[in-house]
Amino acid sequence: MKTMTCKQLGGACDKAFRAETFDEIAGLSKQHGGEMFQQGDEAHLKAMNAMQQLMSSPESMEKWFDDKRKEFETMPEDK
Question: Which one-letter DSSP state was computed for residue 57?
Fold first, then answer.
């Protein structure tokens, strides 16, 4: 298990996500983002706008995901 925070994944808070794989942790982050969107959380909405701008370029988005995946893979396992 490894842990990354919402902020580490481009979000706006310190909520921690724990998962075995990067794909799992990305899914948890996406679910959290959806919940924050539903609540109209201003900080998360701002972070989502920044991510949408990043997604406008497939190359930029792919690089972002590759960088985050590498960050996850090099992190130590939780104790």
Answer: S
